[in-house]
Design brief:
The complex is a heterodimer of chains A (about 110) and B (about 240). With about 110 residues, chain A is mainly alpha-helical. Chain A has five helices and no strands. In chain A, helix 4 runs antiparallel to helix 5. Chain A starts with a helix and ends with a helix. Chain B starts with a helix and ends with a helix. Chain B is built from 13 helices and no strands. In chain B, about 75% of the residues lie in helices and about 0% in strands. Chain B has about 240 residues and is mostly helical. The interface between A and B is large, with 77 and 107 residues.
Amino acid sequence: MSSAYIWAVIAGMGIANYAVRFLPMALLSRLELPRPLLRFLSFIPVTVMSALTVGEILRPDGQWLVPTSNPYLFAAIPTAFVYYKWRSFLGTTVAGIGFFLVFRALVG
Amino acid sequence: MSDMSDTALKQPACPSVRARFSRGMKLGLPILLGYMPVGMAFGILARTHGFNALQAVTCSATAIAGAGQFIGLSLMSAGESVFGVIAATTVVNLRYVLFGATLSTHMSSTPLAGQAALAFSVTDETFAVNIDDHRRGLADAYSMAGVGVIAWLGWVLGTAVGATAAGFIGDPYRFGVAFAMPAMFTALLVAQAEDRRHIVMAVVAGVLAIGFALLLPGKWYIVATAVTASALGAVIYK
């Protein structure tokens, strides 16, 4: 792989990835969006979060795990409870890592 | 733990710019924790694919593209053209269009220059944290910048460590950091499920996500699920 090829890819990736992030934000924040579209967008956070959680837990690193021996799935249950009870993202993340280590030792 | 949530989520009535920025950095700490090991993995892999350390770090610092960067590496070693690699990594991250559109509804008062700076750090994780913070009515441009900076640091520092010193550290996953992002998403999902309609939509999306993840390659299930479930929500809850 030539150095020029690598640098060309790096430059192009930087520009293209920035464009998909910036353009929709810049254009849509300047428009008065119709109500149905706003209603649609209001459900994006919860549905994205649900999809991300399901994907990361049932199929970590793109590999489906058998639910009965999936330490991610087992660890997610007490993790959800910890957040529900104490409402701290950082604390929940640290606690979740602890649960994960325990379940990975037990079932993973 | 309750101390952490208090310092991270509450703020005085009119906090300074610095206080808002550092509050964002605290909110973003779980992202740093999750990005470091994945960034390391990218740094190591990039070196084995012929990148030098500077190229690996520059790529992470400018693209912050996660899965897109890994796919880029494998396409490059398969001899794909420059355009082909760029197109593939961008398509993988087209879901950022949806994130940008959703964030735009909260950013009409942010000037264009501010949006231009904030757009740079939009990822799955920063979107999740910032949109939850907006829902609470706490987020502003400075807190979002704090979240973006800490996430960027995690990704870039991880890449730098992986590209230069991987041999000294060994496998970061033995510390259980593989669960950092799943844990954060789980917490954010619980936070989003605030009323009945959001709980219903979370369940609908969860079921759809399993189906789409079985059918579609890569991360496309995220966009497919979010668009389908949100359209259903917009029709049901008029």
